[in-house]
Amino acid sequence: SPTMSDMPSFREIQKRTLRMVNFTDGLWDLLLGAIFLTLALYPKTREMLGPIWNIVLFLVILTLLVVLYLLTRMYLSGPRIGYARARRTRIMRIVLLVTVVLVLLTFGLVLVTLLGPGSQTPNEIRTTPLARSYIVEWIVVFVMGGLFSAMGYAFGVARLYFYGWMLGLANLASVYMSHTAGWTFHVPGAIAAGIILAIGITQLIRFLRNYPVQTQEA
Question: How many CA atoms within 13 Å lie on the side-chain side of 12?
Fold first, then answer.
């Protein structure tokens, strides 16, 4: 029979449960990728709509994405993996916390986009001095890398380490190209978002295959 040392600790069991609920189905990855794809389009739509209507459009899209994420998790994932009744409140609280962190992080990047060279017109970019340190963008790289790495460690999800540093560096590259070449479509950010979306789709397909809908027996 297994000894006490062979049995997983409560903390490890909790980590596995949270990893199962939050990241196995790939929905969080799809939400993340969709939001950052929207951010990649943000300067382009700003040029077309103007700053005020662009913010309104982004907030509407962000709200729809979060609502769709929560509804899909409730009706698609819930019946397949189930939630332990005794810990339902705690698990759902963690799910909500992860979503809130993601939304706050996204708003931070929106502020960087608004205040950075991506919000300038091509004419303004040409007249901007080339001697620019990009210190804000480098701070974003390390903040995102550190935040996603901390989440990856806390939940035991290795791909979050990759997401954080990739998104931070993609933001740096996007701002650099906006500053030097006048790009209004953030191609590096869109590529990073596409990679995350592809991973999310793969995770979702695997999840649907491995976890058929559970039927409750009387």
Answer: 5
Query: Lowest-confidence range among 9-13, 38-42, 171-175, 205-209?
Result: 9-13
Amino acid 206 reads R
Tokens of 149: 């790495």
Eight-class DSSP state of 173? H
How many angstroms separate the Cα of 214 from the Cα of each of 76, 78, 82? 11, 9, 8
The structure's pTM equals: 0.77
Q: Closest Cα to residue 188, out of 197, 200, 175?
A: 175
**What mean pLDDT comes out for the span 159-171?**
92
Torsion of CA 87, 88, 93, 94, to 10 degrees: 70
Taking each helix axis from N to C end, the angle separating 88-115 and 159-181, rounded to the nearest 10 degrees, works out to: 20
Q: What's the rounded Cα separation, in Å, for the pair 34 and 29?
A: 8
Residue 99, token pair as written in the block:
């979503």
Which structure tokens are listed for 207? 């999840």
Q: Which residues contact 24 (CB under 8 A, 6 or more apart)?
A: 81, 203, 207, 211
